[in-house]
Amino acid sequence: MADSITIFGIAGSIRGNSFNRAVLRSARILVPDGTELDVFDDLAEVPPFNEDNEQSPPHVVSDMKARIRRADAVLFVTPEYNYSVPGVLKNAIDWASRPYGDSAWEGKPTAIMSASPGFIGGVRAQHHLRQSLVFLDMHPLNRPEVIITNAGAHFDHDGTLIDPASRESIRRLLSSLVTWTRRLQGVPAAA
Ligand SMILES: Cc1cc2nc3c(=O)[nH]c(=O)nc-3n(C[C@H](O)[C@H](O)[C@H](O)COP(=O)(O)O)c2cc1C
Q1: Angle at which helices 123-135 and 87-96 pack, to 10 degrees?
Q2: Ligand 1 pocket check for 44: Cβ under 6 Å
Q3: 135 lines ligand 1 (CB under 6 A)
Q4: What is the largest CA-CA distance in the chain?
């Protein structure tokens, strides 16, 4: 077995009771053995991207970039805003992709999950996000997909994801992401 895997996790919401942040928190305990999920929880502190400042980004951005670089893979958990990715998440993606030639995302295996109170579960935001990941030369996992619809019904009062089917689908995605990561690193899969 290769060394442990670290996944950098980022949710595209800064809302206190965010479903997507709750999904990311739950993912922390659903990762396979030997895997650490490093949850980035400072999205609210990331200022609007300004190309004038990209050569000397604020500390929160350089810290985010260092943590992405340290990670073997990246997990995005995104809400859907107007059929796309929330601006706060796109803003963080833009910061970490700059300056030109110094993107922290380059070459990282990645996976996407989404949760929405609606009945489509954020799938259109996933599709939009995937386009950006291709341009960033990341390696998105195709399947399994995690699309949590009717999100309000799946969490308890403390914001813990309690739906067994959703938890199982997250577990499977995380396991596949680790396998995908090892494959891209050239580590043979366990027999
Ligand atoms: C500006 C805005 C646009 C939204 N657009 C969509 C949408 O296109 N599709 C959808 O399923 N939900 C949409 N919603 C509802 C969000 O899915 C819902 O607010 C969700 O709880 C946000 O994720 P969070 O709980 O992680 O903060 C929108 C919400 C806002 C505030």
Answers
A1: 10
A2: no
A3: no
A4: 51
Q: Which residue, judged by its Cα, is nearest atom 20 of ligand 1?
A: 116
Pairwise CA distance, residues 69 & 50, whole Å:
22
Asked whether 86 lines ligand 1 (CB < 6 A), one says: no
82 lines ligand 1 (CB under 6 A): yes
Residues 6+ apart with CB under 8 A from 38: 6, 7, 8, 9, 67, 70, 71
User: How does DSSP classify residue 155?
Assistant: B
d(CA 37, CA 20) in angstroms, rounded, equals 15
pLDDT 10s digits, 90-147: 999 999 999 999 999 999 999 999 999 999 999 999 999 999 999 999 999 999 999 9
Question: d(Cα 78, Cα 123) in Å, to the nearest integer?
Answer: 10
Q: Whose CA is closest to 145, among 176, 119, 117? A: 176
Q: What is the 3-class SS of 59-115, one letter each residue?
A: HHHHHHHHHHHHCCEEEEEECCECCECCHHHHHHHHHHCCCCCCCCCCCCEEEEEEE
Task: Please state the pTM of the whole predicted model.
Answer: 0.97
